[in-house]
Write a structure and sequence with these properties.
This protein has helices at residues 2-16, 47-56, 104-118, 135-146, 158-164; strands at 43-44, 60-63, 85-87, 92-93, 126-129, 152-155, 170-172. It is an alpha/beta fold and 176 residues long. It has a domain at 41-67 and 84-176: Rhodanese-like domain (Oxidized Rhodanese, domain 1, 3-Layer(aba) Sandwich), CATH 3.40.250.10. Helix 4 (135-146) links the parallel strand 5 (126-129) and strand 6 (152-155). The chain starts with a helix and ends with a strand.
Length: 176
């Protein structure tokens, strides 16, 4: 039933979808757009396969959804709260690490975050995700491979597909 709901949710997009080729480098713009069905070097998984990996407890889950910055032009005294993020339980949120080009501080934040969730073991499996049709997760998974991580899973349906399949979400905060 969960799988049927997920398929029905994605059916309109699939009806008109043309295969999206993998770029040679990172996607540099239009991050919310149809994504490839593949990622060379990674294992692409659907929500049910991701759930099985999650249940095994042997895979580190990494969420790379960007976090919007506080607007610079808010009137003085305005209370601003970042939009909350509901993610896969136990996932580590490394926001803003899925852009095509990263400032060195963001690249180091990504490397440090991956090292923390894997205990510094590049053979430790990672599953990287964002939202459905989000190039941020594709870029971040590709970047993890470039950093030498040997077992990288990519969940292209992200938390959208995970939730549509009936799996739980929990509130997360960015890794400091």
């Amino acid at each position: 039933m969960k799988a049927l709901a997920a398929v029905l949710m994605l059916l309109p997009a699939l009806a008109f979808a043309q295969p999206v080729p993998e770029p040679e480098g990172y996607r540099m713009e239009a991050y919310r757009a149809p994504v490839p069905e593949t990622l060379a070097g990674a294992q692409v998984v659907d929500a049910d396969e991701a759930h099985a990996l999650w249940q095994s407890g042997e895979v580190a889950f990494v969420d790379v959804l960007p976090q919007p910055p506080k607007p610079d032009n808010l009137p003085e005294g305005t209370v601003w709260r970042a939009k909350p993020r509901d993610s896969i339980p136990g996932a580590v949120w490394l926001p803003n690490t899925g852009y095509g080009a990263l400032a060195e501080v963001d690249a180091q934040y990504f490397r440090d975050g991956l090292a923390a969730v894997t205990g510094g073991d590049r053979a430790h499996p990672l599953l990287i995700f964002c939202l459905a049709e989000c190039w941020m997760s594709w870029n971040a998974a590709k970047r993890a491979l470039a950093e030498g991580y040997a077992e990288v899973y990519w969940l292209p349906v992200g938390t959208d597909g995970w939730a549509a399949a009936g799996y739980p979400l929990e509130r997360v905060t960015p890794r400091q």
